TrEMBL record, chain A:
Phylogenetic lineage: Bacteria, Bacillati, Actinomycetota, Actinomycetes, Pseudonocardiales
Function: Part of the phosphoribosylformylglycinamidine synthase complex involved in the purines biosynthetic pathway. Catalyzes the ATP-dependent conversion of formylglycinamide ribonucleotide (FGAR) and glutamine to yield formylglycinamidine ribonucleotide (FGAM) and glutamate. The FGAM synthase complex is composed of three subunits. PurQ produces an ammonia molecule by converting glutamine to glutamate. PurL transfers the ammonia molecule to FGAR to form FGAM in an ATP-dependent manner.
Organism listed in the record: Prauserella sediminis
UniProt xrefs under NCBIfam families: phosphoribosylformylglycinamidine synthase subunit PurS, PRK05974.1
Protein name: Phosphoribosylformylglycinamidine synthase subunit PurS
GN (gene name): purS
UniProt GO cellular component terms: cytoplasm
Gene Ontology biological-process annotations: 'de novo' IMP biosynthetic process
EC numbers for this chain: 6.3.5.3
TrEMBL record, chain B:
SMART domains from the UniProt entry: GATase_5 (SM01211)
Sorted UniProt keywords: ATP-binding, Cytoplasm, Glutamine amidotransferase, Hydrolase, Ligase, Nucleotide-binding, Purine biosynthesis
Protein name, entry field: Phosphoribosylformylglycinamidine synthase subunit PurQ
Organism: Prauserella sediminis
Compartments where located: Cytoplasm
Cellular-component GO terms for this entry: cytoplasm
Function, as annotated: Part of the phosphoribosylformylglycinamidine synthase complex involved in the purines biosynthetic pathway. Catalyzes the ATP-dependent conversion of formylglycinamide ribonucleotide (FGAR) and glutamine to yield formylglycinamidine ribonucleotide (FGAM) and glutamate. The FGAM synthase complex is composed of three subunits. PurQ produces an ammonia molecule by converting glutamine to glutamate. PurL transfers the ammonia molecule to FGAR to form FGAM in an ATP-dependent manner.
A GO BP annotation: 'de novo' IMP biosynthetic process
Amino acid sequence: MARVVVDVMPKPEILDPQGQAVAGALPRLGFDGVTEVRQGKHFELEVDDSVDDDTLAKIAEGFLANPVIEDWTIRRVEQ
Amino acid sequence: MTARIGVITFPGTLDDVDAARAVRYSGAEAVSLWHADADLHGVDAVVVPGGFSYGDYLRCGAIARFAPVMTSVIDAAAKGMPVLGICNGFQILCEAGLLPGALVRNDKLHFVCRDQWLRVENNTTAWSTRYDSGAEVLIPLKSGEGSYMADKPTLERLEGDGRVVFRYVGENPNGSRSDIAGVADERGRVVGLMPHPEHAIDALTGPSDDGLGMFYSALDALGVAA
C-alpha cells in the first residue's frame, strides 16, 4: 500500500471567485499582507503497490481534475 | 408517428418532470430514462435535465458523465441523435466531452435565479431552428456554477464556426466568457445551455412560452410534424 496525494488547482487564467472571497475576508478578520488566495482540491488515495504511475495519471486527468479548467499534480508520500 | 424523447433522471436531478412536461407540450412522447440503465429504449432524442446530479460532488456533472446511460448517450450522439443538456445537463455534456469548455462557479459567487433575456445566435442547430436568427427570448436562469469557460483557441473556433447558440443579453449574469449561454457541437445536433427552456413553455408557469421552440425544433430535426 502507498499513499498518493493528488492536488488539483484552477488554472492560472481561470477566475477563482472562491479564492478571491477568502482573500477578501482576511483583512476583515485582521490578517493583513495576504495578497492572493487560490482554492483547489486535495485528494489522498490509499493505493495498492500494483497501481502504476500511468494509472494514477489517468485517474487524475480523467476524473479528479477537469483539464479544461484545472491543473493537477501527483506525488507518492512516505507513511 | 410520434417522436419519443428520453429524459434522464440521475440521483439529484430536479427538472426531469418539467422537461418531460415540455416534451409532451411539444407533442412528443416523453420517455423516462434511468441513470443506471444503459438502454435508451429506442428514443429519437435525449434531454439531460437540470438539478444537482450526485450532489455536484467532485465537480458538477463529473460523476454523472460515467453513469451507464451516458455511455449510451455518447454513442447515440456520435451517430447524430439530437441531445439537449439544460443547466446541470449542460455541465454533464461538457464533462462527457460532447461539448467543449466547462462551467465554473459564477463570478461574485452569487447563485443567480431570474428570468433572463437571451439572443438566438444560431438558428440552424437541431434545437433552435424554430427561432429567428437574432431573436431575443425570455428564459429562466437558475444556477450557481454557470460561468462558461474555454481557452482562447476554443472560443475563437466556437465563434468562427457559429457554434454559440444563445448569448446573454444585457449584463452578464455569471461571468461567462463572451456572454455565452449555450453552445452546440460541430454538427449542431448536441446543444447545451444554462438557462431552462423547459420552465418557459406557457404563461401559467413561466415568464413566456419561448422555451417551447427548442422542443419543436427537435421534432423538425427528427422529421416529425409538430
